[in-house]
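In this notation, each integer encodes one residue's backbone shape. One such record reads:

___
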Amino acid sequence: MGALRASNGFPEPYDVKYWEIGNEMYGPWQAGVCTAEQYAKSYLVFAEAMRSSDPGIRLLGCGTARDELAPGWNRTVLEQAGHAMDYITLHIYQGQNFFPIDAKTPPEARFRAITAFPEVVREILGQLETIIQSSEKLKHLKIAVTEWNTLYFPNPDLTNAHTLEAAAANACMVHEMIRQSHRVEIGNYSDLVNGWVGGCIRVGDSYERMKKPGWSGRSEVIFGTATYHVLKLYANLHLHRVIDLTLTCDSYDPGASKLKLSSQSLAELDAIACLSEDEKVLTLCIVNRSLKSTALCVDFSAWQVETKAQLHTISSLHYEDCNTVDEPEKVKAEVSFVELLGDSWRFELQPHTIYALEVKVASS
């Protein structure tokens, strides 16, 4: 491979520092599927050989977010090989993996289940944290969520993952990774361009239609899904340090889950607050997980803030709305300016909508 790289004009190594050893090795769909014991043994062999070549690399071991696929996988792998890992990886796809939903599930029930993404992730991370805290030799570990997205059910022709509903769920997932950033250091959305139907940048619509009746043939049209606009928005916000907040709102029941969630009463609003690195911008990110409008009142009295703030909004008339080759910008981020009333902000949150409010801070 080195010779091939050199023949393509790159004689020097790429100096790649992050290496994940194996992919979903617990899964029968995966080449080289093995037991946890076999994986741990192989991992240690690869780790030793790779670090002998470059001691500065960071190694990621294969974990699972679905214990039912290989019961006890994470505990066995970590107990036997975790000391030689820098990260344990998870692939988390919200949908039928964790809730009994299918194409016949009533839309409102499906919406409630899908937007419970952060609570699902919190349970999975909590289980992993228990294992990590059980041994001193594991406490150095960080978590890498190397694949995540909504994956409603095995219907690859259906574009549920393109909807505003999916974007709201994915925004909540970003919130949870930020809340748990003391342990979660890597979060890779899957996929970026096309890939399976979950890719957030779409080139034409041939994948979704599989060139069946209804395929537009417009392979030159490039557009972002609703989730693309969420990821673009959050990537450009100044989210350096998480700030504690107190949230009071109505709750909802997401329905039966395959996981034992800590509560079946979930807050309709999912929110985080973060301060910029220079401590001059306070950002409040809110997802309204309700299908009704919600009156909001934010108290900024603990901060000296300017009264003019910038508001980013990702919304549409219906939670099933999505961008297509015919309407590539039906769902996108809009920017406006709002006025605070002294040290408070009152606003009517629209249903199934994602917001980010940026407020300038004089001092904390």
About this structure: The radius of gyration is 22 Å. The chain is about 25% helix and 30% strand.
